Amino acid sequence: MTSHRIIASTLALLATTATAQPVTPPTDVATTEAIRLIDAWADAAQVYGRWPAYSVAIGHKDRLLWSKGYGTVDAARTRPARGDTIYSICSISKLFTAVAVMQQWEAGRLRLDEPVTTYLPWATPKPDGRDSIPITLRALLTHSAGIQRDSDIGNWTGPNYIFPTREHLQAEIARHPPLYPVGRTYQYSNVGITLAAEAAAAVAGKDYAGLVTSGIIAPLGLNDTRPDHPYDLLGTRMAVGWSPLDRAGNRTILSRFDARAITPAAGFTSTAEDLVRFGLWQIGLLARDTAPASREGPLGVLKPSTLKEMQRIHFIDKVNGGSWGLGFFNEDADEGHYIGHDGSCPGYHTAMLIRPDSETAVAVMTTDSHETWGDTQQVHKLLDARRTHAFKDTPPANIPLEDYAGRYTNNTWNNETIILPWNGGLVTLDLPDPNAANHLSYLKPIAPNRFRRIARDGSEMHEVTFVRDASGRVVAKEEFYNRSMREVK
């Protein structure tokens, strides 16, 4: 099926299925204040990083709470990015493929530990004399199959980014020996995930695009997610992909690419909002202990037990690092357990991570070489910071905290400092900061225009004061006799 026919059929199916969940702003003060800080942090990150387009979305439990875009999406840099701007999501495509595989597993058509050649007789790498167990779907989904990463055409070599046809991919498998015996080491493989998709499509008797569109995208109401690139929307709904900055500070627009046979591993497009909707579906399913009586709509995509099986760790590589479920990356951190994936391809970097412990989904997307995995974690951490924050003693309630909100500069020590209301006091953060959650500082009010800096152990420190002009507007912050000026609009 050609690209334009895939897009047309996808849009036609989505028009008759689930409606996308709207953005529903938070009603609690804690989340509202956290998102306000995240907005300021993301805005500064995009401006100082000079990323052409940058989009962020946040969801909690069953609600898409907030999304926003920064920068611009077109070549002329005039059309603003939004939370529903379309980006290439590259390797996040693998999550949709993994779900499609497990749907066929639920139906009894696939076995995870059966040799993949049972379903794809042509999928046998060239023998190299090393002893190895057969390549299985479990090995393919955990990137432990040891097969080649990419097609021998050189997919990611610019400027043209050539990808194989299905016929070429089938022929080339037998030409290359495996990189490693099965189960020996983690070797990320776009070809491996593509083989898993081929197996799912083969046993389902459908083409891959139809399989994921009718079985996943449409029931979940992901109206801006496609197993293709809608280049007719480039520069309007879809952001153009840019090169990294060169030494002169310039960028060029990168060539369009069609992942063709590698679409199941790297060929999808989506939005930050849709990826969060995808994450919220997972959070809702994980919370269930029983399969729903009806398997219609979102509840029919997978059983809860199947998703839980996918997201538990199936393979750990202690040498190269990383732990994988079936298609999903799993990462333990002090603040919780991250599950999701990121994507990186010419002109685009994206990430979507859920935290089952906090029932939160976050997606971050950009048209730059900037890695977004860390940014996605920072958003989670900034939400945590407000949820868990408490002053030792309740601050006075009669202080007009909004008077002090804004950006402050001193033209010496940092680019800018954002100060915002926070749990009855103020939070301060120097921007830009890729590790923002580790560098938040708090001010507790003691009287109008007078605050105490709070130490890490919660104790009160020195006094910080704010200066007002003759009209009563706050125009500066003073600390240690040094003054930072507030940007007054």
Structure description:
By secondary structure, this protein is α+β, with helices and mostly antiparallel strands. The model is unreliable at 1-12 (pLDDT under 50). The chain has two domains: 3-97 and 194-388, DD-peptidase/beta-lactamase superfamily (Beta-lactamase); 401-486, Lipocalin, CATH 2.40.128. It has helices at 3-14, 29-49, 93-106, 137-141, 166-173, 190-204, 208-217, 263-266, 272-286, 304-311, 373-388, and strands at 53-60, 63-71, 86-90, 268-271, 315-316, 323-324, 329-333, 336-345, 348-355, 360-366, 406-409, 416-422, 425-431, 441-447, 450-454, 460-468, 474-479, 482-486. The protein has an eight-stranded antiparallel beta sheet with strand order 2-1-10-9-8-7-6-5, with helices on both faces. The radius of gyration is 25 Å and the shape is elongated.
Feature tags:
eight-stranded antiparallel β-sheet; eight-stranded antiparallel β-barrel; elongated; Lipocalin; 489 residues; alpha+beta; 2 domains; 26% helix; 18 strands; Beta-lactamase
Main pleated sheet:
8 strands, antiparallel
Output the radius of gyration: 25 Å
Q: Percent helix among the residues?
A: 25-40%
Placed side by side, the strands forming the largest sheet appear as 2-1-10-9-8-7-6-5
CATH fourth-tier homologous superfamily of the largest domain: DD-peptidase/beta-lactamase superfamily
Low-pLDDT ranges:
1-12
* Structure class: alpha+beta
Strand content: 15-25%
Using the 3D structure, state the CATH architecture of the largest domain. Answer: 3-Layer(aba) Sandwich
Separate helix tally:
11
For this structure, the CATH topology of the largest domain is Beta-lactamase
